[in-house]
Design goal:
Elements: E1 12-17, E2 25-26, H1 30-40, H2 54-68, H3 70-73, H4 80-92, H5 104-113, E3 120-121, H6 126-138, E4 150-157, H7 163-169, E5 174-178, H8 182-185, E6 195-200, H9 201-204, H10 211-226, E7 237-243, H11 246-255, E8 259-263, E9 279-282, E10 291-295
Parallel strand pairs: 1-4, 1-7, 4-6, 5-6, 7-8, 8-10
Antiparallel strand pairs: 2-3, 9-10
Helix pairs in contact: 2-4, 4-5
Pfam families: Hydrolase (PF00702)
Organism: Westerdykella ornata
GO cellular component, one term: nucleus
Length: 311
């Protein structure tokens, strides 16, 4: 079904995605990678009956670092690399023998591993969606199912600065525009990139669900348009955010003035025509009867259109 504009709807779309869990996900459990690399570097992580289990150790180390140094230690200029190094050491320190230490090479290998497609996979609905957008830019008349005249795609994420390299290693083109100094922000990006900009919580200084990270994305959209076709203004664009967390993504985006879709991805083996519809279900966190817009695949966005404003 090709959606139609039933009211005076804007013809362009500023579309932003969450990153982790939405555009990419780890290959298996993160701790399986930790254990394999640790064993390679001579640390004996038991495959069974470990106390604590490596999953519990990782969970505790992550929670400790998140509480001690929120937003990757932005307040103390720590940075994501040192932040994750602390998580790695906190996880694997339980399995050290007397006088054994965690090798720097182990930490570096894991950081590198989780910076590329070696550590991550792209869900099967993501690339077909971006290929459809590429085709729309080349020959708009051949992709009538995507009703938007112009689409700017960005990423808004609480993940760290490895996100662009991960996305590129998975086959997407990512523009260089980031929130930062004025010189950095003048680097040209293009609406022809699969992703024109990436907004990182570390750069902004605030994490989702804070409204300011979504406001930063609007500014990135404005700057992208400044380098794009003449005559377009960000006010001519609907704003849509897509993510897999009902609080940090769906509700946060709506509170910031964006439209939102909650991604509850189903297994590819169950996909059928109905899976490509936009579903509506009750919000379990809301005391008032309210429906949540849910999609099972990113390609379902071809069937999304903003709700008609109420008088």
């Amino acid at each position: 079904m090709i959606p139609t504009r039933s009211f005076a709807q804007k013809k362009n779309l500023l579309l932003a995605f969450d990153a982790f869990g939405t555009l990419f996900a780890p290959k298996g459990h993160v701790t399986d990678h930790y254990a394999a690399f640790a064993r390679h570097h001579g640390i004996d992580v038991p495959s069974k009956n470990a106390n604590p289990s490596i999953k519990d150790a990782f969970r505790a180390a992550y929670k400790h670092e998140f509480k001690t140094h929120p937003n990757y230690g932005k307040a103390v200029n720590m940075g994501a690399e040192q932040w994750w190094a602390n998580v790695i050491k906190g996880t694997l320190s339980h399995y050290l023998k007397p006088k054994q230490s965690i090798p720097h090479a182990l930490v570096n290998d894991l950081l590198t591993h989780f910076s590329t497609s070696d550590g991550y996979t792209m869900p099967p609905d993501v690339m077909p969606f971006f290929k459809m957008l590429r085709a729309k830019k080349r020959k708009p008349e051949q992709v009538p199912e995507w009703m938007w005249d112009n689409t700017i795609v960005g990423v808004i994420t609480n993940s760290d600065d490895r996100v662009p390299s991960i996305l590129e290693s998975l086959g997407l083109t990512v523009g260089p525009r980031r929130v930062g100094t004025s010189a950095e922000r003048k680097i040209c990006s293009s609406m022809d990139d699969d992703i024109s900009f990436v907004v990182l919580s570390y750069d902004v200084g605030y994490q989702k669900p804070d409204k300011r990270i979504f406001d930063a994305a609007i500014e990135m959209g404005k700057e992208t348009l400044a380098d794009g076709p003449e005559g377009l203004d960000i006010q001519d664009f609907e704003k849509l955010y897509v993510g897999d967390s009902i609080d940090e993504d769906y509700h946060a985006a709506q509170a910031a003035g964006w439209n939102a879709c909650l991604l509850e991805r189903s297994e590819p083996s169950t996909w059928n025509a109905a899976e490509y519809d936009v579903h509506h279900r009750d919000d379990p966190n809301d005391q008032q009867p309210k429906k949540v817009d849910v999609i099972r695949t990113i390609t379902s966005l071809v069937n999304w259109s903003p709700s008609e404003p109420k008088p």
